[in-house]
Amino acid sequence: MSEAARSLEEVGVNRCFGGWHRRYRHRSASLSCDMVFAVYLPPQAERRPVPALYWLSGLTCSDENFMQKAGALRLAAELGIALVVPDTSPRGVEVPGDPDGAWDFGHGAGFYLNATREPWARHYRMHDYVVHELPQLVEASLPIDACRAISGHSMGGHGALVCALRNPGRYRSLSAFAPICHPLACPWGEKAFTHYLGADRAAWMEWDACELIAMASERLPLLVDQGTADDFLATQLRPEALRQACAVARHPLTLRLQTGYDHSYYFIASFIDDHLRHHAAALLA
Amino acid sequence: MSEAARSLEEVGVNRCFGGWHRRYRHRSASLSCDMVFAVYLPPQAERRPVPALYWLSGLTCSDENFMQKAGALRLAAELGIALVVPDTSPRGVEVPGDPDGAWDFGHGAGFYLNATREPWARHYRMHDYVVHELPQLVEASLPIDACRAISGHSMGGHGALVCALRNPGRYRSLSAFAPICHPLACPWGEKAFTHYLGADRAAWMEWDACELIAMASERLPLLVDQGTADDFLATQLRPEALRQACAVARHPLTLRLQTGYDHSYYFIASFIDDHLRHHAAALLA
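Output (structure tokens, whole complex):
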């Protein structure tokens, strides 16, 4: 067993679709706390390393929401793609949370960035965790190779966009469900960025998908699904800002407005197979 | 709108796979309390009434576990089958629960029978609710017809077997995941039956699938999946008792022991499509 594998404590295991859903706890160097993440290893991983889709979840979620509710494991098993699902923030009693106990900041709301302001900067480094530490760990300890795709929902859709746009060459494909497209101009983003990055909005631009698309050196085709009955559509998510940014930058975007769908996992489940096939086309090419 | 439809208060709605997941609250006459149940209406229900699979959940569950975690809605939408998912017991402050606050009796643990002993007999009449009141309600108020199938998990697997075996002609097909096959001879069943039915074991036989199979007048082919890594297999579920009862009675049984699978919804999700196709063959014939 490798040193990386020894650093993983298995905290759950379920056989599923001929493969394995596994949850691990480990000490995260990036986040200076213990973290739990989940992987789904398809049956093909018994014979060889497989490519992986990294899924970033939304506000209040843990690793469990996507694995339990998205219905993604069936097709992942068929395609031979691993799923890697981190938590949504650093956790633990030593990690500061929202001063008012709100659910849209702090625990469960790391926004997949590297905080620069205290008291957040010590722990809230989810970008480093998701982009570097977690892949390094799973690729060293599990039958998962370095062919990576990334997707996510809401805050995690923002995270997926930003992780890929900031790290050209690191992901082979990219998609999002109902992403927070323009966090520097919506209430959730403004609250989080003010705390994590400070009041100077110039520092916010490098964590905003619409700003990053303008200067992207890589043009990964972007698949985005957005429900039209999503309560957060106009105020928080702002897909039209993403559409405009992509149009100006000539960034390839397929933005699908799904009539009548909301912000829930019932929406995600309805279209996850399309996203898995989008990623499979890049990962298995 | 019919009187039945007026009695339903919609408490949730999500578009899913082109159809609708809906949750309703209503006053139950059988249970003398307010109840919440969920339905999934496939796209075909916009044009005509569709047949329904009734799903009975296990201990501690509500209507939500199956809808969120089983991954059943995708194929139900394709096949044109509605899903009707009741809660697992009467609920509310006026409904007595386990005297010791345990999770295996009382709230969330109605065992799909009609209790005869006080203080349970007034509310705990889940058999009447599931077999009569709920179908009558949904068939009068929603685009759901009287072609019914039934399935369930664990305590709900027991419920599905007993509901079908006690009511020949009422269901066109029957299946179960990890059912409590012989409740009169396992700790969960003994505890529940002692409270709900009293100490006289003769009264227990009419709520035990293995006993009912011996005298069944209808021979619905039975599909049962059971994980071999299920922690409750030997002590609570006892599929070999069901196998023996079916062998003696020459009742058609397909009992599949699924290697390495546990008692969770990861197990159910892995095989739910087979069950949906089993029911579709009977419902859509």
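The radius of gyration of chain A is 18 Å.
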